[in-house]
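Q: Give me the 3D complex with zinc ion.
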Amino acid sequence: MRCPLCKKPAPRDGNPDWPFCSERCRLLDLDNWLTGRYRVESALDPSGSTDGSGAREIRQLADELTPPSVDGEFKGERD
Ligand SMILES: [Zn+2]
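A: Here is the predicted complex, encoded as C-alpha cells.
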C-alpha cells in the first residue's frame, strides 16, 4: 500500500495514520476532502435561489420507474 498523497510506501503495521505514510499526509488529505466538499455544496446552489426545479425532476424520474400497478400487486400479496 502506498500513501495516496505522496505515493511513498506506507506500511500498515503499527501505523495509526494508515493508509497514509504519516500524520502530515493524513491531515493534508482531510483538508483536501473538506475543501472539496465545501466547493461541491456551493456549486449546487450557485445563484442562491432555491426554486426546487432539481427536486421536481428527480420526483418525475421516480414516478416513471415505479408503475402504480406493481404497487397494487404487492399490497394484495401481503399477509
Ligand atoms: Zn504520505
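A quick observation: Residues 3, 5-6, 8, 20-22, 25 surround zinc ion (CB under 6 Å).
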